[in-house]
Amino acid sequence: MIDWFSSIQIAVAILAGVLCLIVGLTGRTPNDYTLGATAVVELLLVVQFVVALIAPAAGNQPRGDLLEFYVYMVSALLLPAAAVFWALIDRTRWSTVILGVACFAIAVMVFRMNEIWLVQNA
Amino acid sequence: MSTQSESALPPERTRRPRIAGIGRVLVVIYAILALGATGRSVVQILHQFNDAPVAYSLSAVSAVVYIVATIALVARGAIWYRVAWVTISFEMLGVLVVGTLSVTQPELFNHASVWSYYGVGYVFVPLVLPVLGMIWLATHKPVALSQLPADETAQSETGATK
């Protein structure tokens, strides 16, 4: 993983989480902005996944447990997708809050993934 | 606590209304925690089980309990309501006991688990969640069929889903 990219990703996920939480708590159903923000979080995860696949070949070896890393990676990839899917079916304000919760969870998971790759066993 | 779930009516005459509103957020947080605990537990058992068999077995048990609690919150029926109470109480007990032991007897729990240090590795979600879960259960008891809104009754009788 690349430290600065992970930092941007965590920041985007937190911003998206705050946006969805505020919009959700003001009573809006999922809209283009909240779904779009979650989609951006998902897109960055896909980029991160590609980075993680290529990085070892480019000399950026993980320090930590690669299995643990990929358990986080795969769970993280599923989470915003599931939240968006939920939001498209359940058109209530709470689905917007759920988008926010998923984004916050991604921020935490990317932080952990970054730690596994760059800090664990260092 | 179990007495709260035992209504005067026999279980087959009661229904739990479909979980809605902010309760759905609770279920999602439970599901994410279950996912996280399960993933971590699988990794611990596959790679480092012999380092701390007790701590990692406990991690696995807690992961299963989170999964069952998630299902019990969503599933309808008075029995699931009781299952929800049992699993959520177990989580509360687990996070308090393991959390306290990890502070007073760190040598027993020097390997990370969901409940170590009151769930600090999971942003204290494991400490807060059982409380919210209990509040939810206490305020959303199963109700008699006759007291349900007509559409809910119709849905639960036909098993129709929207």
- Roughly what percent helix of chain A? over 70%
From the 3D structure, determine the CATH topology of chain A.
Four Helix Bundle (Hemerythrin (Met), subunit A)
Q: Determine the N-to-C terminus distance of chain A.
A: 14 Å
- Rg of chain A, rounded, reads 15 Å
The fraction of residues assigned to DSSP E strands of chain A is: under 5%
Average per-residue pLDDT of chain A, rounded, comes to 93
Q: How many structural domains does the protein architecture of chain A include?
A: 1
Oligomer: heterodimer
SS-based structural class of chain A?
A: mainly alpha
The helix tally of chain B amounts to 6
Contiguous helical run count of chain A: 4
The main sheet of chain A comes to: none
Q: How many distinct beta strands of chain A? A: 0
CATH architecture of chain A: Up-down Bundle
User: Any idea of the CATH class of chain A?
Assistant: Mainly Alpha
Total strand segments of chain B = 2
> Taking all residues together, what is the mean pLDDT of chain B?
79
Order of helical and strand elements of chain B: HEHHHHEH
Give the helices and strands, then pairings.
The complex is a heterodimer of chains A (122) and B (162).
Chain A: H1 3-25, H2 32-54, H3 66-89, H4 93-118
Helix pairs in contact in A: 1-2, 1-4, 2-3, 2-4, 3-4
Chain B: H1 2-5, E1 14-15, H2 22-48, H3 53-74, H4 78-104, H5 125-139, E2 143-144, H6 150-158
Antiparallel strand pairs in B: 1-2
Helix pairs in contact in B: 2-3, 2-5, 3-4, 4-5
